[in-house]
Design a protein that fits this description.
Chain B: Pfam families: SBP_bac_5 (PF00496). The structure holds two protein chains of two kinds. Chain A is mostly helical. Chain A contains 13 helices and no strands. The chains are: A mainly alpha, B alpha+beta.
């Protein structure tokens, strides 16, 4: 088991290195001169622009620029943005926000998704089941942009203006965990719906299995049959889904972050791609790649916990 | 364990309270009564400043809004848009070439040091030097000796100081310009002309990043703590009580950083934000009912144009073609419908917010499709036209509207071409990959008619300014020079207006619309006023 984990982590190194080169080359290939773009619609003094290009090595060929980046990286220097802010400082602050948001979303997704799925599966074919399926269909079909703005307007603005309830902040991360509830739900919206449906299907299938009938015939309580035997087996596809979703929740929060003005990596990534700030884009994407790798590893290890037949050597 | 429902409820509430308290303690940013003094700050919307706060390197609106609160300018602008002394006691000249600036006594830096003339000379020399890579360096291009500190691409400066700047005594300094410039006093209200304290420079004479993160100014507000760019969501300022100018009535000011103005508007309506200086386009239609008399709608000094690539494409050489295109555009419908009234049709090269504007000066700026068609056909204009725009600034809709106008009025084929950034249009024009018309906008640096003319249309501005069309007319240049050296304001304005007449005749650009300021404020404040440079006038704002 220990050797398996180490092997998997060692495999991550070439993947991460490859990702840096690939992303660096992609940013390099973007059209336009980032320095003249900095000046907006007024022209920058050519002498100043040239001095800036020299400072950021923008006149050098791709591989040389990459070499500067990698040598800096190995010395623990992640580079700076075009406004001289160290990338490391930027990433630490922004990832804090994004991690808070992603985990709030993941917890909401797990609790609501599995809860609703379980409820629907146990009431299969009844009105509750149909209602839950209808709600999930709605969640899947309405874009995040709409749910985000509608919930912000209704729960953030109108609730405060009409009833004086100031529980959900409109925007920003000023109110501790409360700031993340609404954006977390919006971000997890479609995932909640998928997870609900997945849980329901998975559980309904497991409940038809022979060993469930055996367990019931043995006279076990219904709670024990469902909790100990059915749900545990039904969890395997759900854990896979949740694990893969963590990466999506972290990297795909651009819209949610901008609706709720959360200063996370999604917004930073969009802005840095736009400004062609190679070091920032590479830093963020590499970190996201690592998150995917680690999340997948954890999922694989969880299989063994859920199903004792699975062993890793 | 068996617990009764009541106990469960109490325990749950206690846990929740604990969690709330813990989170409240760990949330880094103070907010609404969480600040030490307990006073709620006046909160204003801000986009993330592009850079840290170096006065000589801040040419964008967000950074200069912050600097405006921290620094006091040499001159301010009165209601008649005339420059009046603020930090300066007097600004005098006899020949528009040698200017003597005397400071009022009593101004101090936030660290307690007195403000002296040397602080201005240091700051200006620093900003002008190309080795310091300050984006506002060109503002000092008129000072004698600028070429010594900024000789151009690939060359090394021969001096660290401009010979045109001379300290007379602690409260007086003298500026010698390379050529007479009557508008110099008007220029001095701009961000780039702020001074810098001794504390800003390190041993090698560079302005430090530590200073730029927490600038020490001589103005109304001082920074509470260094600004961590990229991570901080607010910039918190406290009133500087030793400031001798007009002091604001409240003691805490907070800039809240937003990336989306729609979101900020929602916060404004929920009273989580007090001042928003530019409302989102989507809110304009309802802002009046949402905000009532807390909605501000006033002229802004900006202009939007359609520009001709005269230097690159001979198709537009005949001025009759340019006139026809101008008359084919229905400016009123664009301003009222596409922009929901947040723009007004342009009828001069000088904006109505500035002295020198003449209503209806540009006769060919009136919509006349029949005449346009006649002119265009007679001049044998091209059968196919292109308009380029940068699609990062909400220009698509009005450019499409112009294209529809041109198609229906002139009966020709018109295509619109999006570019990712404005700079990309210029790159493609220079590389001859694109040869069509393009949109262009201008926001003023200082409120003078000259600022709408020389930086955009003079021959010198092709190389160093914003003359992207490559227009050049010696007669125009000469009138600008005459205006620059004229003895009185009235006289120089006369020459500038004549220069503007030449533009109207030559039409290198077509003025399409003038901007308007659409701002709003919450019920917690009153007396919000926005000045010509789009800065909030803090001394007039009051908490209600």
């Amino acid at each position: 088991m220990g050797r398996y984990v180490i092997r998997r982590l060692l495999q991550a190194i070439p993947v991460a290195l490859g990702a840096t080169l690939l992303i660096f080359a992609l940013v390099f290939a973007l059209p336009g001169d980032p320095i003249t773009a900095l000046a907006g619609e007024k022209r920058m003094d050519p002498a100043v622009a040239d001095a800036l290009r020299e400072q950021y090595h923008l006149n050098d060929p791709l591989l040389l620029q990459y070499w500067y980046y990698i040598t800096g990286l190995l010395q623990g220097d992640l580079g700076t943005t075009f406004s001289r802010v160290p990338v490391s400082q930027l990433l630490v602050g922004k990832f804090q926000v994004t991690i808070n948001l992603a985990f709030t979303a993941l917890i909401l997704e797990g609790v609501i998704g599995i809860g609703l799925g379980l409820w629907a599966a146990l009431r299969k074919g009844k009105a509750t089941d149909t209602a839950i399926l209808a709600v999930t269909l709605l969640l899947i079909s309405v874009p995040v942009l709409v749910t985000g703005f509608v919930l912000q307007l209704v729960l953030g603005v109108q609730l405060k203006k009409s009833l004086g309830i100031d529980f959900f902040p409109v925007a920003g991360a000023f109110e501790g965990w409360r700031s993340y509830l609404l954006p977390g739900f919006v971000l997890a919206g479609t995932s909640i719906a998928y997870l609900t449906r997945l849980t329901r299907t998975s559980l309904v299938e497991t409940l038809r299995a022979d060993y469930i009938r055996t367990a019931t015939a043995k006279g076990l309580t219904r709670r024990r049959v469902i909790g100990r035997h059915a749900l545990r087996n039904a969890l395997i596809p759900l854990v896979t889904y949740l694990g893969a979703d963590l990466g999506t929740l972290m990297g795909g929060a651009i819209i949610t972050e901008s609706i709720f003005n959360l200063n996370g990596i999604g917004q930073q990534l969009a802005q840095s791609v736009y400004l062609r700030e190679g070091p920032v884009v590479v830093g963020i994407v590499t970190f996201l790649v690592m998150v995917y790798i680690v999340a997948n590893l954890i999922v694989d290890l969880l299989y063994a916990v859920l199903d004792p037949r699975i062993r890793y050597e | 364990m068996r617990v009764t429902k009541g106990v469960q409820l109490v325990a749950g509430t206690a846990l929740l309270a604990l969690a709330v308290a813990a989170c409240g303690g760990s949330a880094g940013t103070p907010q609404q009564g969480a600040t030490g003094s307990g006073e709620q700050p006046v909160r204003m919307e801000l986009g993330e400043p592009q850079k840290l706060f170096y006065p000589g390197d801040t040419t964008e609106t967000e950074g200069s809004e912050v600097l405006n609160a921290v620094f006091a300018p040499l001159v301010k602008y009165d209601d008649a848009k005339k420059a009046v002394e603020e930090v300066a006691q007097s600004i005098t000249t006899t020949d528009n070439k040698v200017w003597t600036i005397k400071l009022k006594p009593g101004y101090t830096w936030h660290n307690g040091e007195p403000l002296i003339a040397q602080n201005y000379v240091d700051a200006w020399n620093y900003a002008a030097n190309q080795e310091n890579k300050q984006s506002a360096s060109y503002f000092f291009g008129r000072v004698d000796g600028y070429k010594d500190v900024s000789p151009g691409e690939g060359k090394t400066p021969t001096s660290k100081t401009m010979k045109g700047l001379k300290v007379v005594d602690d409260s007086t300094f003298e500026v010698t310009l390379a050529a007479p410039f009557s508008q110099f006093k008007t220029m001095l209200g701009y961000t780039s002309f702020y001074p810098l304290p001794k504390a800003a420079f390190d041993a090698s004479g560079k302005v430090t990043d530590a200073y730029a993160a927490k600038p020490i100014g001589q103005g109304q507000f001082q920074f509470d703590k260094p600004y961590a760019k990229g991570t901080d969501q607010t910039i918190d300022l406290t009133r500087y009580d030793k400031y001798i100018g007009a002091k604001p009535s409240f003691s805490k000011l907070q800039f809240k950083l937003y990336t989306q103005s729609e979101v900020a508007y929602n916060d404004l309506r929920a009273n989580n934000l007090d001042i928003q200086d530019q409302l989102p386009a989507t809110a304009i239609a309802t802002a009046k009912t949402d905000l009532g008399d807390r909605y501000i709608d006033q002229p802004d000094a900006g202009i939007g144009y359609i520009s001709f690539p005269l230097k690159y494409n001979k198709d537009y050489e005949n001025v009759k073609i340019r006139e026809a295109i101008s008359m084919a555009i229905d400016r009123k419908t664009i301003a009222d419908t596409v922009f929901s009234g947040t723009r007004v049709p342009a009828d001069d090269f000088i904006n109505p917010a500035i002295a020198g504007y003449r209503q209806g000066a540009c006769a060919v700026c009136t919509y006349d499709p029949t005449k346009a068609k006649e002119l265009y056909t007679a001049a044998n204009g091209p059968k196919k036209l292109e308009i380029g725009y940068n699609n990062d600034g909400g220009h698509k809709e009005w450019i499409e509207a112009v294209a529809i106008n041109l198609r229906s009025s002139l009966g020709i084929e018109v295509t619109v071409k999006p570019f990712e950034k404005f700079a990309a249009i210029l790159d493609d024009l220079a590389a001859k990959k694109y040869g069509g018309m393009f949109r262009m906008g201008w926001a003023i640096d200082y409120p003078s008619a000259e600022n709408y003319l020389a930086p955009i249309f003079s021959t010198g501005a092709i190389e160093t300014g914003s003359n992207y069309s490559g227009y050049s007319n010696p007669e125009f240049d000469e009138l600008i020079a005459k205006g620059d050296s004229a003895k009185t304001e009235e006289e120089s304005l006369k020459f500038y207006q004549q220069a503007s007449d030449i533009l109207i005749k030559d039409l290198p650009y077509i003025p399409v619309y003038f901007y308007r300021v659409n701002a709003g404020y919450s019920t917690s404040v009153k007396g919000v006023k926005i000045d010509l440079q789009n800065h909030v006038v803090w001394e007039s704002v009051q908490k209600s």
